[in-house]
Amino acid sequence: MEKLTFGWEEWIALPDLGLPAIKAKVDTGARTSALHADDIEVFGTTKTPKVRFSIHPMPGREDVSIICSAPLVDRREITSSNGETEQRFVISTTLAVADQSWPIEITLTNRGTMSSRMLLGRQALNDHISISPTEKRLQPDLSYDVYHTADLKSRAPKRALRIAVLSREDNYSTRRLVEVGEARGHAVEVIDTTRCYMAINAMSPEVHYDGKRLPRYDAVIPRIGASITPYGTAVIRQFETIGTYCVNGSAGITASRDKLHAHQVLASKKIGMPTTAFAASPKDTSNLMGLVGTAPLIVKLLESTQGKGVVLAETKKAAESVIDAFRGLKANFLVQDFVKEAAGEDIRCLVVAGKVVAAMKRTGAEGDFRSNLHRGGSAKVVRITKEERETALRAARAFGLGKAGVDLLRSEAGPKVLEVNSSPGFEGIEKATGKDIVGKLYDEIEARVRPQPSRKRRP
Known about the structure:
Residues 263-446 form the ATP-grasp domain. By secondary structure, this protein is of the alpha+beta class. The chain has helices spanning 122-125, 152-155, 172-183, 229-242, 250-257, 259-268, 285-292, 316-328, 386-398, 427-433, 437-449, and strands spanning 4-6, 9-14, 19-26, 33-36, 38-44, 49-55, 64-79, 85-97, 100-109, 118-120, 129-131, 162-166, 187-191, 196-199, 206-209, 212-213, 219-222, 245-246, 276-277, 297-301, 310-313, 333-337, 345-352, 355-363, 378-381, 403-411, 414-421, 454-455. The chain is 23% helix and 35% strand. Helix 4 packs antiparallel against helix 5. It is elongated and about 95 Å long. The chain starts with a strand and ends with a strand.
C-alpha cells in the first residue's frame, strides 16, 4: 500500500457508517481516534452487541444529522487532552482516503463544542501515514455538498437496525420476523402490546414497558390481535408521535378492522366488493335483506376473524333466524351478497410497499364455504390477472397499509374485495408460494430507514 502524507487536518470518509465526507484533525498524542457523536445507545444481544449514534458531519449545522450503527468491540476509559476521564464505547470501521482504505478503531464521545467532528489517533495512522504538521489537507478535497445530493441514500450502507415486533403470540409469523431480521444483522425485539404503557405529553412522548422506557426503534412491525385493536392502535399512535416508522399506521389498522368502516372505505374508492348492507333496528330485517338481494346471503359479525362469526344463510327464513340470533346477542353485523361462482375459493394477495409480492388461492374444506386456512382450508400458488393485481393494490392503498393481506373473490363482474387484513399471517402464503415474504418486508424497512441526512427545523 502506497504511503500517504497527512497534514494536521484532512478530508476522510467512513463509508461503513454512511459518512462520505468529514474533516478530521490529526492528533498523534492520542492512541485511538474519536468521533463526536450524539444519542449514543447500545442495542442487540450480549453475544453481538451493537451501538447506534447520530453524527452532525457539518460543523455549525446541528440540523443535519445522520444515524449510524456499528458492532461494539469494547468500552474503555479514555483520558482527554484536558485531563478529563470518561468511559467510551469503541467501534471498528473502515477509513477511506483517496483510493485507499483500512480498518481503524474509533471511540464515541459527545463533545459538541469541538470544532473538529473527528480526531485521528496513532492507531489509525499506523504505517500508512507520514505527518507534515505545518500543512493541512494534502489529500484530495471532499465536500459537504454530498449531504445535499439525492444519491447519498443509494450509496449508504445497510446499517444494523433496532426493530420492535408488537405481538402477543409466539407463532410462525412472529418467529419468522425475528429470524429473518437477525439473519440480516438487525436487533429484533418482540414486545407484548398489552404490557406497553404511555407517557402522553407534548414535549417528550414515551412508550414504557416492564417499568422501563422503551428505546428509540428504527421501525415497528405491528401484529395487533383483533381483541386488543383499540389499545394496540393507541400504542402505535404513540410510536407515530415519537416519529418511529411503523409498517402499518394506526388509522389504517383501525379502519380495516371495523368491517363496516372498511366497506365504506372501499366503496368510497370505487373498489369492487360484494353488495353489503347494515342496520341497527330489528324492524329493518326484511328491508336489509332486500338491499342485498335474494338468498343465499352471508351474515357476518363486524369483529369476525379467521372465518369465525361468518354464516351462510341458504334461505330467506334462515337469514332471518341468524339475524335475530345475532341481534339477541347485541352483536353488530352486516349482510352481504353470496358470490356463488367463487365456489368456496378466494385469493389472498400479499401486498408489501405498494407491490403484490405473492398470491395464493385458498379453497375451503369439504362442505365449508369459508376458505380460511385456520378452518382446514388448503392453499396453492395462483397467477392473478392484471385487474386482480390492481384491485389488491388499490385496496391496500385505500387504508394506507405498508403490509396487507387482501382477500379477493373471482366473480362474473370482476374481482371483489372480501377483506383487507392489516396483520396477515406468513406461514400459509410462504409455504404455498415458496417465496421469502418476510425478506421482502425487511427490504422495504431497510429502504425506509437507511442512513441519510435528516434535517430538523432550525430554531
